[in-house]
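request received
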Amino acid sequence: MSPGALFRLVFVVVLVAFLAVPQAFAPVFAPFASNGAPAIYTQSGLLTLTLSHLAMVAVATMAATVVSVGLAILVTRPAGREFLPLSRSIANIGQTFPPVAVLALAVPIFGFGPIPTLIALFLYGLLPIFENTLTGLTTIPPSVQEAARGVGMTALQRLIGVELPLALPLILAGIRLTAVISLGTATIGSTVAARTLGEVIIAGLISNNTAFVLQGGLIVAALAFFIHEGFATLETALARRTRGALLI
Amino acid sequence: MAGSDLAEEMSGHTDTEFQVNRRSGPDRLGALLVAIAAAGLVFQPFSLFRANRIVAAKPVWLLSALPPLEAWLVLAVVIAASAILLLRTRPALRLIVCALTLAVLALAVGRSGVFLTPPPNSYARVAPGGSFWIVTFAFSIALADASVRLRMSPLGRLALLALTGGALWLLLWSGAWDSLSILREYANRADVFWREARVHLLLAVGSLAVAAVVGIPLGILCFQVRSIRATLLNSLNILQTIPSMALFGLLIAPLAWIGAHVPGASAIGIAGIGIAPAFVALFAYSLLPMVSNTVAGLQSVPREARDAARGMGMTTWQRFFEVDMPLAFPVVLTGIRIVLVQNLGLAVLAGLIGGGGFGTFVFQGISQTATDLVLLGALPTVALAFAAAIMLDALVEIANPVSVRSAEA
Amino acid sequence: MIEINGITKAYDGIRAVDDVSLTVESGEIVTVVGTSGSGKTTLLRMINRLVEPTAGAILIDGRDNRDLPGHELRRAIGYAIQGYGLFPHRTVAENIATVPKLLGWDRRRIDTRVDELLSLFRLEPAQFRARMPHELSGGQQQRIGVARALAAEPAVLLMDEPFGALDPIIRGKAQDDLIEIQRQFSTTIVLVTHGMEEAIRLGDRIAVMDKGRLLQFTTPAEIIAHPASDFVADLVGSADRAFRLLSLSPVDDLAEPGDAQGEPIDASASLKDALSEALWSGRAALPVARHGAIVGRVTRESLIAKAGRPQ
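response:
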């Protein structure tokens, strides 16, 4: 087993153990808790919060994937091509909307709770996936597209058989980007009463308890790390299969 | 070169079958946007009226939100503009029509404030309603579309941005919006607003400046010394995965310790509370894009250019300053664009840890469920990020006209 | 047989192909040659309707090529291009099987056909079937590209600069392969190229195009001997046209009874090779051999006479 894989395995075990029996780790966090404050957040279970956090990110990311891949396909078809330049610049400008602002603007419309957070995560998640799918679908080598038409594939056969498979590594990269960003942004959702790990961090900020901030932050960072790694492995495997895509 | 025939075919001509239907019938995007605007006008109120700051809002539709004559006038303008969007009109005309319509909407919403809350009533609040936002959204998209179709030069885009900023300033200065609730919130805390605005800019731009001073040399080092590249970029990557809110919080304790124990530190503002933790956190997040874009920029310098420079007898330093840096500069500038836009948004979080900035209003607003206060913080943030993006995109294009143009072709 | 009748393609009023008519006989190789922008690729792509003509019609074996939907038409016509356009995410076997699969052939038939084609192109099936395109050399990719085009046994094969990216030695081999395969299956081939050298070597007849117009359509010998215009003459080049002419015929054509000294030359070698050998070895005549037996001789005199412009 390589050192990297071993490190990852240990990391997973530690994370799972911490989520299962947080109290066992109290001594680790105790030095960061000031004035006899509790070292481990107990208001809600860390595991429950983690699961709810992940569920929110998963739902938002999946919805964003479906919508943005669909849109990207639409604007790269002949019928939707006139929307392509505009959709590009909207995606570009949309990226500039700060996630916190999206969240803040969603609250007046949808009220407190998980909904504004889901909306913000969804909206903010659209752009990276859309942009990457677009790049993937528009950078297919001309000779490959020409060949696909030349052998008599219909538009649908070309999309499913050639364009999407070739764009897949880039689409996955977009989903990864969205998932990792959402994971961090979801913490802010706790300021509008969504049940995420942000709750732990905010509790720490309010009570001046660094131990809480640390454990909330570390769990999110670890989750982000694993999601990043998982997707990256998948992307590399796929890209290796089609490595010549841009050379052929 | 051989094969160029095919390239020409693929880029220019393959979709000619579809150009036919593109030239007839209504403008498809225009139709979509007009439908959105119409739905907004029918199903959403133009203004929201509150008897005081906290109570639930009462929706007011366009025709009752303004004096009858003005209401019909606004409606007429929107309908006329919609007709122009529906037809296949020239982009320049669409741009002007959209800009004018947006101006009329902006004035109308201000007028609506005056109309619904005559001056003596200082408790009642009027806010723009759904249809205002939706129609504004539709025409902004149409405006963006027109400017894309015009293929404006970077300078042209900067001029358009300046013009928009000027118009906005004129609206605010003239007092046309003074009756709107968001400006009532502003009027109550004008001093604080500008103080927080300065803090926000200091946080976003200051941390960017420090990150550039540190990050660009680090990037150059990474490029030259291959062995540290992976290590440094990986550690910065891991730093990025720490949620921003946690990083802000985690810096409080160490900075408080430094402020208390390092002589002179507190004198320059290092403390556990205030802007120091926010500044350091933003700096930390800015480092990765700065370093990685510097590396990417240097990597993008064609080997042939570097070879030719060596072949002509340039020294290492001459090559660096006359070949590497000028060619890498646009990519570095792109890094600065990413960081600036990101920082302007992230600086909002400083409000959560007492670091100031526009976030102060956002989080106060959220905790008081005062929408207008949230908007007072969020809208300037969005506007700043937006303006920064347009400005730096234009600068990147000016710095690198060749590659941008070939990328578009 | 492909009958192209008054075909025109205009883009925004500019005629990329301007009223071109020509007929490609069954089992013939026609090369279309011209500079870039001459309209030769557009002409080719109108045959399988990757480009729809503005005016005119194309008949394939008597049927208008617009009788079928475009994609069905294209499944029945082989198509090989420069850059090959192999699908980078599919194996060699999957690439070759593309059209048979679209046509709904059964698995067994597809597998047999794939192996058959790999062997035809001297690629060991067991070794190459499962490879990905990026694991192949340029020459191998090119062969797979042509194999894919031939997979469903089309009667017509369209080729757009298929050898453009190959180095000269491999290109020479690939051209020989193509001639070999064409003889074996008597496929009708239309091949677009920008090089007159290749056009002369491969074409039974050559169509020369410039600015969308067909300037000349005739045999290589005719093109060399009687170029229709200065443009065609330039394209053929004046420096070694005598040798090009000689390269078109085999020694057999000039063989006469008689004796000669030295190493014999094969009857199937070109006249150009024979003259070269005669000059190099300083002989006035070379013995001609067929299947190893001397059948006569060829004289330097007759070779030189043959190299002159035909009247």
